[in-house]
Amino acid sequence: DGVTMRELAAKSGVTPKTLYHQFGNKEKLLHSAVEERFRHTYQAIDDQEIAKGIDRLLFIIEAVADSTRKNIDYAKSLAPLLGTRRSTTFAQIRIATYRKAIAQIDEEGDFVDWIDTEVITAMIYRQVNPLYLNWWCDDDSEYALDEISKLDICLILRSITTGYTHKIATKTIQDLQNNAKNFFTS
Asked: What is the mean pLDDT of residues 88-102?
């Protein structure tokens, strides 16, 4: 709020006319900037070499939560963009990242045979989405939304997987339940 195209142009080393020509208005310029950073963040996540799909999925949750905590203002700028129901570039970027982890689990042969991976990808997408709203949580909270998201996702995956994924989902559930029990009873 309060920033002008003139100020943005001065910081960018161009004329206001150039910015208006390129973006049309301040909202479109800011949307483009937020989208570019979002792409960069998810590309960095995707580029990580992670051997197993569930490990990749848990890494994604941790990376998103960490990014949100470190960039509160950025998370606040994303909230209205991520709250929309229509398909956006932001949704497509995130879904592609989750799809990669789910496909990895599928390639490992850990899903039971009746699973539709697109449905699971959509469910994961909806479970991770609240992490971008984590900025409203108390900074001192020991039990954050990423823990809840991991627990929910592992509960889902434990019921539809075998092998390594099932084993890690079970261990993660046990660990997170112990953390929650300690947090809520202390």
From this structure: 89
